Amino acid sequence: MNYRFPCLQPEQSGVASVFRESRSGVKAFMRSAAIALLLGAGHTPRIANAQSLCESCEAQVGVGVTYHFWGTTGGLVLPVTVNWSNSRYELGLFRISTQQVLYDAHYRYGHVMANPYWGLSLSRRWRLFDRGPVRGFFGFGIAAKTESDQLSVTRLDFASQLGLRFPLPGNRVVGELTFRHWSNGGIRLPNHGQDFLTLTVSLNSGLFGMDRREQIAFRDMVNSKDAPGANETSAKLPQETALALADRGNGQVTRQVSNMVIRAPTGLSELH
To answer: In what order do the strands lie in the sheet with 260-265?
Structure first.
């Protein structure tokens, strides 16, 4: 004999409506964060001397792929990240734009692991080593997703990363190659974990921090003054290509050399 409890149906429908509202709220938050990061990364100020929003921030964009147990799952990743405090912290927005299908001995014809979704992560990163211009780092933090799937049934996961940071040819752009893993640590199953690899490059838009080219040029100039023959080399610079202006407000000297502005402390000797 079947028994019906009509009084329970309104409560169940209410729970379902709350679940749908919370899910839509998460999606709306992720979309807002996506728009904010994309606009911030793509914006280029037209005023050259405009102050940066974050002096130590660096925006990066790139591309990535998903994998599972060192086998490809065919997911395309579109990352936008911002790191600050000498790359100690990172905020990342990720779009898994294609379906993830796993092919292995158990699933010869493929098994759908996850559908496209948005992800957001916040991590603290630590330097592991420095080998010349190449730096290794490890990061750990939290990640949020708009969808739950077989890779992780939860939408709030732990986020870990292991990567390399290196300059690209010309020393004007910095790149990062990062292995990333999101999972809930086995709190709820299924929890295979979301694995993906990203390759990102820095944007010198001027919105975040000082232009890296100015920092590199200034460092090279200071180092060259201590090298043998530096005075003879600087003496050969034409007088009409060097212009020194004293800025008493901040105690700095602005030098324009071949249309490039370099800032240095007033204690340094003048270029001639």
So the answer is: 242-247, 252-257, 260-265
